Amino acid sequence: MEAYLLNLVILISIYSTLAVTLNFIMGYAGIYSLAHAVFFGVGAYAGTFMAMHFNASIFITIPVAMLAGAVLSLILALPALRVRGEYFVAASLGLQVLAVTIFSEWKAVTGGIGGLIGIPPLDILGLEVFKPSQFIFVTVGVLVIVLIIINRLVHSSFGRSLRAIRDSESAAAAFGKNVPLIKTISVVISSALTAVAGVLYASYLSFINVESFMLDTSVLIMAMVIIGGTGTQAGPIVGAALLLILPSIISYLDFLPQTEIGSIQQIIYGLGMALLMIYRPGGIVGRKKQSEAGKE
């Protein structure tokens, strides 16, 4: 039971990092992306390539992964962010489909559909971190660092510019804001931080393949943000925890057919999001904040 709980907390920490980084552009800039799993995968593959062929030090794999994620995000952001939000959604979906094909076919780097096995453990100043009891401190620590970085950005002048763009791009531009540049920078920051989660994920499992970075993963991460509460600090973490704990609870229900567990989970996710949009449009955490604001 202890090993199971450690594994669950580690995965919640990794997916919370993914949700928090997506929330940075979704909740504060109003940029909706269906390609978040792409940057997750790019970070995983870039970090793994460095670890397997050069050096597994976290001070090498993570910067390389962040650089790869940032560069790829520029390819998406520069043309797509010059237009309104729905075009970016379409562009991100196209990138997601293209990336899955590349992940599947670029066997020299990704291992193809079979994936990569035997990924070296994280190396932190010569200490190999592979036990869950050790790894949990790394994943939670990274989540805290990402939260601090995003919190500082959100409460800076840059964050105020993001919220202005989210509320009205035309008004932000009228006040002299360089809307395309600000949106591009936000996407680059989000993608670079997302890549860090990819490095942790690959190192922890010692195996990765394309199935972890497909469209359904991007949708799952977006669901975590929406269910938890967009534009809130705790919302993405609450959403990630809920959507990762829920399958564990469902799997223990003996009256449900085990062969249909996956379908039942998808039905519950969809139903939950629909109900939240009707009764708690701000998400689990967002609704509470809105109520408190109304009382004031």
TrEMBL record:
Pfam families: BPD_transp_2. It is found in: Cell membrane. It is a multi-pass membrane protein. The keyword Transmembrane applies. GO terms for molecular function: branched-chain amino acid transmembrane transporter activity. The keyword Lyase does not apply. Keywords: Cell membrane, Membrane, Transmembrane, Transmembrane helix. GO terms for cellular component: plasma membrane. This is Branched-chain amino acid ABC transporter permease. The chain crosses the membrane at residues 6-25, 32-52, 58-80, 87-106, 135-154, 185-207, 213-230, 261-279. InterPro entries: ABC_transp_permease, LivM-like. It comes from Sneathiella litorea. Its main location: membrane.
